[in-house]
Every structure is written in structure tokens, then in C-alpha cells.
Amino acid sequence: MERIKKVFNSEAGMTLIELLASITIFFLIIGVVIGFLLQTNHFVSQTNSTVIQEGNSQALRLLLQDTFSSGIEIAYTEDPQEIKVRQMDGTCHSFNVNKEQKTLYHYERKCDALMDFKYPEQGEAFKGISGIKLDSLDQKGRAFIVKIEGDKNIQYSFNLLNTELQK
């Protein structure tokens, strides 16, 4: 105890080695804290990205279910990739993929026939989508599956209420 009092009461100050040791310890502590904060920030941003992708994926699944469950007429083109659906209430939907932007666009408006369907000014955009495909599941052409390829692959099976398929 006496020795500690002597060190603090001494006017000689600290030696160079003591000064270097304290600076080294200080920077080690700062490095650990900054490393921890950077790792935490990276983890949080990854988690946010995953949550956003899951939310978009779920929204797209619900949109597909809502659109195709009451479809009576459907048209599909492979290039450019597009699926058009007309529902019983006369609402027409278009799902088309811009491969360069990796984005699926959804347009909706009332129409009498799919061939008359013109895109409205605004639509929904789903990022991270690289392709959309429509496959028939049966010989009668009533059961279909929509496959969406991208960051999260989505498949949705449905039956047309009518058998009108246009290519």
C-alpha cells in the first residue's frame, strides 16, 4: 500500500515503457470494441435483408394464390417471360419478368379479354426474380403450376375454373 502511495506522490512521472504499455492496452480494448460493433452491424444488416426477402416472398405467394385461384383464362409466353390471367370478375393480371433488372412486375386492371389487356401506368415490383414459368400438370390442361425462380424459388399449383389456355 505504501508503495502505491509513493508511485502516485512521486514527481518523477511514468517511464516510457509504462506509457507504451498503457497506450497498447488502450488500443487493444478499442480494437475489440470496434470489432464487436462491426460484427454486430453486419449481423443486423444480414438479418434485415433476410426478413425483407421473406416478406416479399410471402406477399408474392399470397398474390399468386389470390390471382390464380379464381382464374378462368390464362396466357403464357416464354420470351419475354409473361403470364396473363383473367379472373371471373373481369380483372386481368399480368406477371412479367425483366431479366436484366431481376424484377417481376405485376399489373392489374379490368378487361373483357386477355388480348385486350393493356398495362396500366403503375404496377407492383418484386426484386430478386430471374424467371417465371407455367407448366401444365394434367392432360386436360386444367391443372397448372407457376414456378418463380430467383433469390427465393416459389411454386404455386392451381386449377383453372375454365379450360381456356392461350399460347
From TrEMBL:
<keyword id="KW-0812">Transmembrane</keyword>
<keyword id="KW-1133">Transmembrane helix</keyword>
<feature type="transmembrane region" description="Helical">
    <location>
        <begin position="12"/>
        <end position="38"/>
    </location>
</feature>
<keyword id="KW-0472">Membrane</keyword>
<dbReference type="InterPro" id="IPR012902">
    <property type="entry name" value="N_methyl_site"/>
</dbReference>
<protein>
    <recommendedName>
        <fullName>Prepilin-type N-terminal cleavage/methylation domain-containing protein</fullName>
    </recommendedName>
</protein>
<dbReference type="GO" id="GO:0009986">
    <property type="term" value="C:cell surface"/>
</dbReference>
<keyword id="KW-0178">Competence</keyword>
<dbReference type="GO" id="GO:0030420">
    <property type="term" value="P:establishment of competence for transformation"/>
</dbReference>
